[in-house]
Design goal:
Elements lengths: L11 E9 L2 H11 L3 E6 L2 E5 L4 E7 L11 E8 L3 H14 L4 E4 L3 E7 L5 E7 L4 E6 L2 E6 L4 E2 L3 E2 L2 H5 L17 E8 L3 H8 L6 E6 L4 E5 L7 E4 L15 E9 L2 H14 L4 E3 L2 E5 L5 E6 L4
Parallel strand pairs: 1-4, 5-8, 13-16, 17-20
Antiparallel strand pairs: 1-17, 2-3, 3-4, 5-13, 6-7, 6-12, 7-8, 9-10, 10-11, 14-15, 15-16, 18-19, 19-20
């Protein structure tokens, strides 16, 4: 058996699927507030995203409930291609009066909000030219490009962000085609156990672990993080029950069939159960979060 040290560096996070209580309301939010397109709808399910990519699946489960104090989704993050497109998205939120929390992580510009059912969402764009935001020596350390330190959680300069808008920009237009899911951040009951699975089994590289903040970042190809893993609900927090609203699964996109087979080999070696599904593999992490491993379009 060949030795596989890391997941393929071209690996990305794909779509996210949510169990929701009110499909019409959720479609309205993601379409009108966030600018996603409705790609398809079949009875109690719908897929949204861009014209060419599916970013979100909504599965209506009206009998399900929202549980507190459980693990699962902290937020999923929609990545915009540049500052201008993030500015359009944030301007739309303010225009609609939607509560959000613009934050400057220095190496990313972002805002945080929730959908009508309480699912956490981050909207962001990359800004590595401004500095770095990493875990070093058991702590979050943020350095600006000039070497000065930042908290990494400063209020975002909205005047500067909105200066990227052009006079004829229409903030009501759908998100651009290059928009995608940048990362997923999960509540877990134990950070070490989460790292053991996502790094030790799936093969993501560890970008930093902090026992002080009870969090870790893992990624493929040197990205700052494709997955955030935290224990902020408390060590040993229980998983959501089977009838919980929220995360159903998220997808991990491998660039080709060989890369998918490499991960399948790792799953077999670790004794992790999975099922074959159209185009890939379906499994759960140790905390019950659904994962679909699949080959990206064109792979």
């Amino acid at each position: 058996m060949k030795t596989i040290t890391s997941i393929h560096p071209g690996t990305l996070i794909g779509g996210v699927a949510l169990a929701v209580a009110d499909l019409d309301r959720q479609i309205g939010f993601y379409q009108n507030t966030l600018g996603l397109r409705v790609r398809w709808r079949q009875e109690n399910r719908a897929g949204l995203g861009t014209q060419t990519s599916e970013l979100l699946v909504l599965d209506e489960q009206p009998a399900f409930k929202r549980y507190r104090g459980v693990t699962g989704l902290y937020h999923f993050a929609i990545l915009f291609p540049n500052h201008r497109e993030l500015a359009r998205a944030v301007a739309r939120l303010f225009d609609l009066g939607v509560a959000n929390y613009p934050t400057d992580h220095i190496m990313t510009k972002t805002t945080y909000l929730e959908d009508p059912e309480g699912n956490g969402i981050e909207l962001y764009c990359e800004s590595p030219e401004d500095g770095s935001f990493l875990i070093e020596n058991n702590d979050f350390v943020t350095r600006r490009a000039d070497g000065s330190l930042s908290s990494g959680r400063e209020p975002l300069d909205l005047k500067s962000l909105f200066s990227n808008l052009l006079p004829d920009d229409d903030i009501s237009q759908p998100v651009p085609e290059s928009t995608r899911i940048g990362h997923v951040h999960l509540y877990t009951p134990n950070v070490s156990q989460a790292v053991n699975f996502y790094h030790g089994v799936l093969g993501f590289d560890v970008m930093g672990v902090s026992s002080t903040f009870r969090a870790a970042f893992v990624s493929a190809g040197g990205y700052h993080h494709h997955l955030g893993l935290n224990a902020w609900k408390g060590d040993g927090a229980p998983p959501p029950p089977a009838d919980a609203l929220g995360l159903e699964h998220f997808s991990i996109l491998l660039p080709n069939q060989s890369a998918l087979e490499d991960v399948e080999e790792r799953l077999n070696a670790a004794g992790v159960a999975y099922n074959q599904v159209d185009g890939g593999l379906r499994l759960s992490d140790p905390f019950g979060n659904g994962i679909i491993l699949e080959v990206s379009a064109g792979g």
